[in-house]
Amino acid sequence: MKYLEGKRFLNGLPLILAGPMLRRTEPGAVTVWVALKHPCQVRLQVLNTRHDGQQLADCVLQGQAKTTALGQHLYVVAVTARPVEETELACDRIYAYDLEFTPDLASSQQTVSLTAALRSEALPTATVSYFAHDKPTFVLPPSRLSDLKLVHGSCRKPHGAGFDALPLLDCLIEAAAGTHCERPHQLFLTGDQIYGDDVGDPLLWVATTLGDTLLGWEEALPVGRDNPEDIDYLTPKQLPAGKRSELATRKAGFTAGLDEKYEKVTSHFLSFGEYCAVYLLARSPACWPVALPAGRDVTEGREAIRRWDKDRRNMQQFVHTLWKVRRALANVPTYAIFDDHDVSDDWNLNQAWCLRVLGRPLGRRAVQNAMLAYTVFQAWGNTPWQFEAGQPGAALLEAAQQWSSAQGQDQQAAAAIATYLGLPPADPHTHLPQFVQDIQDLPQDGTEGKNIWVLRRSNRALTWHYTVRGACHEVLVLDTRTWRGYPDTRPIDPPMLLSPSAFKQQIAKPLSRSDGQSSPAATFVVAPTNVFGMKVLDWIQQWQLNHRKVFSADVGDSWNLNDRALATLLTTLFRYRQTIIVLSGDIHYSSAVRLSYQTSHSKPQATLVQLTSSAMKNEELLTQILHTRLKEWLMPEKSRRWVGWSPSPDRSVPDMAEQPAQPSEPPDWRCQLDWLRRQPAQPAEIDPNLFWLMPSQSGRSRSSLSLFWPRFWQGFKFWQARWFQEGQEVIGVNNVAMVRFQAKAPQNHDPNGEPGLAVQQDHYWFSSWRPIEVVRSRFETSLR
Length: 784
Description:
Layout: H1 6-11, E1 16-26, E2 29-36, E3 40-50, E4 55-66, E5 68-71, E6 74-83, E7 95-103, E8 112-113, H2 114-118, E9 137-138, E10 149-153, H3 167-175, E11 186-189, H4 201-215, E12 221-224, E13 231-234, H5 245-251, H6 272-283, H7 302-320, H8 322-330, E14 334-336, H9 351-358, H10 361-382, H11 392-405, H12 411-421, E15 435-437, E16 452-455, E17 466-469, E18 473-477, E19 486-487, H13 500-511, E20 522-526, H14 535-546, H15 563-576, E21 579-584, E22 591-599, E23 606-612, H16 621-626, H17 630-634, E24 640-645, E25 655-657, E26 669-675, E27 682-683, H18 711-714, H19 717-720, H20 722-725, E28 736-744, E29 756-766, E30 774-782
Parallel strand pairs: 10-11, 11-14, 18-20, 20-21, 21-23
Antiparallel strand pairs: 1-2, 2-6, 3-4, 3-7, 4-6, 5-6, 7-8, 7-9, 10-28, 12-13, 15-16, 16-19, 17-18, 22-23, 22-26, 24-25, 24-26, 27-30, 28-29, 29-30
Helix pairs in contact: 3-8, 4-6, 6-10, 11-12, 13-15
């Protein structure tokens, strides 16, 4: 069985390959991203609505833009609409938007509507609307914090175990589509939106052909020999699914396959076409084949066939519910940031990884391809002003067009792409990536061992971090991958996830802005990697660091292993805000922790609440165990305490320690960390009719649990019992989370008698004790 190629395949595709995806949305500007199979002039209109969104009214914002050619049959654009007159959007009403496409083809100048552009013979009823007018809708964040609703999630792997939880967002929007204060207002994808390393064999089989077909050419990937200047070239089709382990590990230098984890990189993405294809396949059903073949039809060997068929089963429901994912992403403003798997596991983990991967031609090419795809498919909508004429993003898009039109042979365009992506130049003698000393952290006392190094980048490079502000809140989205501060000790030592200069640019500068506005009611920080994790994980990582096994469990992605970085993070945040809410993911389980912070001065106590939501589709046996009561019986999380010392003339950075026995001097601040307990699961406010969940041709009943609970555990009746599944510390199954606020009555000990505010994180997941039921679990804590 062969995946369709050529004109027959292309003619069967709708005009819209993925999208529309609602991106950065503000009172004076709305951006929508879309991927098309033809070049077009795209017009965006934002419309008023009446009767709770049911009736369209006048146009209030409009804009247009021309697509960028990534390939012969792949065109993308993020078009921004701005006010027609002086009126901006309000935060207490529902708006709709419409797109029109004018093909830039000699054979046709007829405008195509949004509805027509979505549909094809294979998708005759495709829609992205919850209303009869067939237009997507949205609402701005409210002016009152008690009405705000943010959704976040991470780690969505198509062949990961369990049901995909992202379609549940569509259910939440549908249930409240006509109520502006009840709809989700923003969605934050906090990392690992795709997996570049751990790729299912069937997904690579589709992505390779799809990528090459849409680009219209096959990329020549540089497969280096022992001499970096002596290079062979292979195309993606010459590197079939299930056969890339040795190449990814030895030739590209990727670390995901080390320590005998070869199965993690058997189908590692390498080409630009493959990375582009996976974004289309993760967001839209348009480019998927009608059915995936069985393993025996495409591969050989018992183990390869078994792995293929397992991945195929796990991907069935993922593909079947993509129509709900596309509709949800069209109807809520969506913001994203990368983590390591968006490129490859351990991306920029430490100096050793950078030297190992970026010093090899194939490794550097794959990283550049992944970052370019991230830029076009995700970053463009986060900060659309970076892609306007005269800005680095516009120059990057032009270079990408030139590189693709030359079928990857334009070296000058390739070098320009690397420059605008911020990739470090290679040393001409060693071919290794260049580092520079972080100028913000030069030692003040002449001592050694405190220097911090960062990857060299051009001052013309794009910035990946950004800030989103609403009427009552602000969100700082951190880039903890490309601005790491590497110590001048061992190459494997844990870095600062933000270098000193990055702390100033990404946190201090946006929090200290002096534009005359008062501080918002709530400050969120999106940190793709957790600030605080389980104590046992810290022990494991410290042991692995001591034994130089840093790539086994992401040793270096934890803030806890670098006291300098953690102390700097806390002191910087609390210097400007008394309350911080961190949104995080990465670790394949969900939790909530509360940190109380008290200085030795007269300032009131400050609070940091970390809300973690992971994974949307990647639950594992370990996380399923943590989900149960076994976790709190065997490894309960206890309160943890730290003390810290602020910078002084003889100490250029803050120091901290966890419960020192006899500190040499009184600490400047203290903090205590407590894990919150999740409330018992309740039926979710979602239509219990889940007809959409499973494909009818799968031959499985909706009550089948085999897709998300391992067969081993199904022999134990207590495993599926509700009392056993009601663990109190974490949620270890696929889920998506909504954050909201609730006013609380004043406490008796509050001298002012003022009402408090509690933050709630509701997780939506599929239960095991009833036939395919969606339930909701809640973490809650006061912010006072």
